[in-house]
Amino acid sequence: MRISNDLPENARRALALWLFVVAGLVGAMTVIGGVTRLTESGLSMVEWRPLIGAFPPVSEVEWLRVFDLYRQTPEFQKVNSFMTLADFKQIFWWEFIHRLWGRLIGLAFAAPLAVFWLKGWTPPPLRGRLLLLLALGGLQGVIGWWMVASGLVDRPDVSHYRLAVHLSMAFLIAGLLVWTALDLVASRPAPAPAVLRRHGWGVLAAVSLAIVLGAFVAGTNAGMVYNTFPLMGGGFAPPDILHLDPWWRNPLENIATIQFNHRWAAILTALLILALWARRAALPADARRPLSWLAGIAAFQVGLGVATLLSVVWIPLAALHQATALLLFLAAVWTVWSFRGHAAPP
C-alpha cells in the first residue's frame, strides 16, 4: 500500500516520529511483560477493569480485598499459599505496571491520531493502516485478559498457547508501526533481486517462528531444564524428547521438546540470516545497512540465548533476551522493507 505523496515533509516527519515512539513503548511493554512472567506476577490481578483498574489499591481495606481475590486462585492455593499481604504486593506491582503501560500505549496512539486526523494528515491509505493498528491495540488488551483468565480456573499458570498469541500480537503491532513509519520518511533503495527478496521473507518467517517457540519455552518454564549447551542430557536430543503419547503432543507440551525446538530453530534462523548476509554484494548499497544490523543482532541474540540457558534463566538476562528478540524481529522487518524497493517520499 502506497502512502500519498501529497503530505508535506513536516507532516511526514511528525507522523513517523510518533509511530517510532509508540513502537518504542510497545518494545518496553514486551520487556515489562517478560519480567512479569519471569517473576510469576501475571496472575496477581484477577479482575479486568479497563477504566477503574488504572488506579492501584490505596487503602488497607482495598489491598485486603484484592489479596482475598488472589487467594481464591489456583496459583495461590497450589503454589503460593505461603504468601502474606506483603509478599502479594511485590508481585502485584509488576502486573499493575504491565497493564498501566498498556493503557499508556493506547493513549499515546489514540490522542495524537485524533490530532493528526483533524489536521488532515491522514490520507486514505495511511488512515486505513492507523485504524487497523488502533483495532489491533484494543484486541491486544482483550487477548491479554483472555490469557490471564486461562490461569484462574483450574491451573496455577496461564496457557502457553495464549501467551504465544499475546506476544505475537505485540510483535506484529511493533512491526506494523515501524513499517509504516519507514514508509513515511525513509528512502527505499532499488529493489533487491527476486531471489534475495524471497530469502528476506524466509528470514522474517524464521525469526517469527523462533519467537513463537520462545513463547512456548517461557510459558512452560522449559528453560529451567537441560541447562547445558549444545548437548541436552548428554546427547544432541534429550532422552525424553518423545516422552508424551501421542507423539504430536511433544512439540506442543513436552518441555524437553519445546526447549529443543526453540534452541535449534534459533540456530537455524541465525544461519539463514548469515547466508543472506553473505550474499550482500548483490544488494544495492542502501539495503546492506539493515541486513548488517540484522546479522549483528542475530549473533548477539544467539549468544544471549545460550547465556540465559546456562544461567538457569537469570531474570536480567532473560529480559534482555526478550528485548533483543524484538530488535531482531524489527531488523528483519526493516530488511524486508528495504528489499522491496520503490520511489522515496518527496
Task: Describe the SSE topology.
Blueprint: H1 9-38, H2 60-70, H3 74-78, H4 85-118, H5 124-149, H6 160-185, H7 194-220, H8 250-253, H9 255-278, H10 285-310, H11 315-340
What does the model show?
This protein is mainly α. It folds into two domains: 1-185, no CATH class; 188-346, no CATH class. Helix content is 69%, strand content 0%. The chain contains eleven helices and no strands. The longest helix has 34 residues, at 85-118. The relative contact order is 0.13.
Q: Please trace the helix and strand order, writing H or E for each element.
A: HHHHHHHHHHH
Q: Which regions are unreliable across 5 or more consecutive residues at pLDDT < 50?
A: none
Assembly category:
single chain
Biggest sheet architecture = none
User: What's the total count of β strands?
Assistant: 0
From the alpha carbons, calculate the radius of gyration and give it in angstroms: 22 Å
